[in-house]
Amino acid sequence: MEKFRIGVFLFLLLVLAVLTFSLSKSWKIYESGYEVTVDPIEDKDTAPEPTDEFDLENGNGKVFWKQFFIYPVGLVTESGGYGPDGTMAHARNLYSVNLKTGAVKKFFPRNVYVWDYFLGEFSKQIISNIDEPKLDSLGLDKRLLVFAATEDTNKDGVLNHKDGKRLYLYDPDKEELSDILPQGYVFRKLIYNTAKNTISSIIKKNPPPSSEKAKGKKAEPESPQEIFSYDVITAKGVLAKRFE
């Protein structure tokens, strides 16, 4: 009889342990939930992410000078910029295809952050006042302007609009992409209405990244703005004296 009572007690204890474990597991699931993978829902209103895929049928490529097909890799556009149509074209890289010879030129050996690109010869009307419309123009013969960040200047691990941008000129006939700014400087603003085949811009010395700044020291004064002019024909530039 004593053995029977002990057996019943052990059986009830086992049932109680099972119930306690089940209830505690259910409560844990209720509190934290299961870890599942959910496919992201497409939002038609969000801007598309850039892609490295080559899709020549997407309409992003354009023919310039009736001979060169310029194709941007991972094109994303937004309003603004210095170009003729008021639209900025961001990309990872650019290709030029000579439609007569079939030659293909890749602008940068590796993917970068192309902030914008457009033809170097155009005029656009800016209406700042209805009675006095303003005309901005550039006159560079057969050149493509490319603004790009090729180095992670702020050391945050990515190339984007926060990094210092350089100004390049692409000559399609020579298939040459030239970095025209002085070393150590970055592009700030384009100056319109300059002489034929002359491009001028406001530039600044690229500040050292925050990781290179000494701790405990006062922040160095921001580098002054300077004006740089470049002659496309002679391939020479001049840096104006600083304002005093």
Describe this structure in words.
Helices cover 13% and strands 37% of the residues. The radius of gyration is 30 Å and the shape is elongated. With 244 residues, the chain is mainly beta. It has a domain at 62-184. The protein has 1 helix and 14 strands, in the order H-E-E-E-E-E-E-E-E-E-E-E-E-E-E. The strands form 4 sheets. A 4-stranded antiparallel sheet has the order 1-2-5-6, with no helix packed on it. Strands 7-8-9-10 form a 4-stranded antiparallel sheet, with no helix packed on it. It starts with a helix and ends in a 5-residue tail after the last strand. It has one helix spanning 2-32, and strands at 62-64, 68-73, 76-79, 87-90, 93-98, 104-106, 113-126, 134-149, 166-171, 176-179, 185-191, 198-205, 226-231, 236-239. A hairpin with a 6-residue loop joins strand 11 (185-191) and strand 12 (198-205). Residues 212-221 have a biased composition (Basic and acidic residues). Residues 202-223 are annotated as: Disordered.
Q: Layout of helices and strands, plus pairs?
A:
Elements: H1 2-32, E1 62-64, E2 68-73, E3 76-79, E4 87-90, E5 93-98, E6 104-106, E7 113-126, E8 134-149, E9 166-171, E10 176-179, E11 185-191, E12 198-205, E13 226-231, E14 236-239
Antiparallel strand pairs: 1-2, 2-5, 3-4, 5-6, 7-8, 8-9, 9-10, 11-12, 12-13, 13-14
